[in-house]
Amino acid sequence: MDINQHCVVALTWTLQDTLGEELDVLDDPVEFLVGGNDLFKKIEEALQGHSVGATVLLQLEPEEAFGDFNEQLVFLESRALFPQELEEGMTIEGSALPPGCNPDAPHNVLYTVTELYPEHVVLDGNHPLAGIALRLKLKVEGVREATEEEVGRGSAGTGFFRIQPPDTLPPGSDSLH
To answer: What are the residue ranges of helices labelled H in the chain?
Structure first.
């Protein structure tokens, strides 16, 4: 079966930046709905017409993947607002930011603690790969017809990741979490 709209494709991949640094490897196949919310548009376009066993190489510019880095999603907050156990690399849902944080911080964003200082915390609402051009080596491990349920919800339902619709994010921060 060839890949087309509303089929489910099982993929493995290697993800690198443009300097060849390996960012992610997916060795065990994960299913994604083509024509839903599971994959970036450019990935779906590149997969069209391929079948099991195919290897697809492509480069995604930031605007085709995780968006450009948005400085307006970086916030410096008082360290006193956060629990003592807070560590760099932890993530916080925007809706769970403690009272007293910047009221302009969007609540529909996932923040990463990027730096800790004695008096301040730096929260970054950008996806960690925002602003980075990516090289993908995809391998098609399986293709099947999507179920009505998968088409209806716009996802193969793996929970591996999802693309947040742009209308739920601040301008310029299309993101994948």
So the answer is: 41-47, 148-153
Question: Per-residue pLDDT for 77 more than 60?
Answer: yes
d(CA 141, CA 171): 35
Domain final residue, candidates 109, 124, 139? 124
61 and 134 assigned to the same domain: yes
Domain span at 137: 7-66+129-168
Q: Over pLDDT 90: what percentage of the chain?
A: 85
Give me 44's structure tokens.
């779906």
What CATH number is given to the structural domain containing 91?
Answer: 2.40.10
SS3 call for 57: strand
The Cα angle at residue 15 between residues 42 and 6, in degrees rounded to 5 = 40
Q: pTM of the prediction?
A: 0.77
The two three-digit tokens of residue 84, written as one number? 């003592």
